[in-house]
Amino acid sequence: MAVSETTSRPVKGTLGKYFDEPGMDDTLRHYDSRFFKGVVEPADRVESLTDMIRAYLQFFHENGLETWIAHGTLLGWWWNGKILPWDWDLDTQVSSNTLVYLGEYLNQTVYNYTGSKPGSRRKRQYLLDVNPASQDRHRGDGQNVIDARWTDISNGIYTDITGISELNYDTEPGVLSDKNFHQYREADIYPLRQSICEGVPASIPFNYIGILAAEYGNASLWRITYENHSWNHELQKWGYIMAQFVAGGILIMVDKPHCLEE
């Protein structure tokens, strides 16, 4: 069961960077400072991200709003319809019109969600927080390239939401851009394809192969070892490489399926 409600949480000032993280290294920059209580253990992080994408997609579906998964979240979907187990956050995109609607009607909504992991059923709350600078579609000084976030209030882990729009319709018609140097042809995005991500309906960019290859390189679509994980073709999932050692001049990798089970 999921319930939406609005909150009187004060909105931060619009000067300077809107979203604030507790640090800038690869770990701390993936948390919202307001809700950060410490670094989440890997297994708990994966469970948090899994619940987060399910709740996010459910919320948008309930409100009749268009969104699609992007960047690393899209890459994880390409491999097995799941998030990448080494990912720290999630990424989604919306149209500029949807972004305006979120800011005007749903900003500061708190969404109550019950986790779907068997034996857990953890109660979670997510804050939809729209950046006041989201309607400025230019990069500026780069501090506000993220237009909105969907944040787990219990730990500060978040989903980055970015809008894309046709910024230069006179000189670059049909080219859609966010504020962080990502550009797409309109035909790369639309019509959106319908698929499943982490067990719930999700929209996917039309030319997902081309988008992923352009952003991450062709090797991202076939490379089977990355970030201390290896791809298990039989199980159709990424396994964590626990140890590496040399026996008789041969490198041996010992791995196990990731600890988060269905």
From TrEMBL:
Pfam families given in the database record: LicD (PF04991)
GO BP annotations, alphabetical order: glycoprotein metabolic process
TM region positions: none
Annotated ranges, domain LicD/FKTN/FKRP nucleotidyltransferase: 61-168
Membrane topology qualifier: Single-pass membrane protein
Alphabetical keyword list: Membrane, Transferase, Transmembrane, Transmembrane helix
Subcellular location: Membrane
GO-annotated molecular function: transferase activity
Any Gene Ontology CC annotation: membrane
Main location: membrane
Name under which the protein is recorded: Mannosylphosphate transferase
Organism: Trichophyton equinum (strain ATCC MYA-4606 / CBS 127.97) (Horse ringworm fungus)
